[in-house]
Every structure is written in C-alpha cells, then in structure tokens.
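Quick one, T. Sequence first:
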Amino acid sequence: MFQIRERMKALGMTQVRLIFELRERGIVVQPPEMSQILSGVNTYPKATRVLEMVKQILSDLEAKEKKDG
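Structure tokens:
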C-alpha cells in the first residue's frame, strides 16, 4: 500500500481524484473506505479489486506523464 501512496504523491494525485477515477470505471468507493483500503485495513474482495484498478490507473497516468514529459 505504501508504494501506491508514493506513486500517488509523485503524480500529484489525491484520494478524492482517485475515487472519481474509480467511479468512472464503475467502482464506487467512499472516502473512509478508500483510506482503509490504502492503509491495508480493509482486505475484503472489493478492496482487492479496488487496489488492482488503482494500480492500473496509476500505471496509465505514469505512462502518459512519461510520454508527455
């Protein structure tokens, strides 16, 4: 989870923006739930799905930044 937060920081991405990105992809997460998932407290199947999607979102943004940068 720490790596995700570092990647978010490097991209200037907030949890709120990440929640909106997830919502656009059909996954609804509330802010407290997102914090629990990123901190590793919530490990339910939905949390696993959220983490997989978060990693994909961050990878896409990193690739775009690298291409544009």
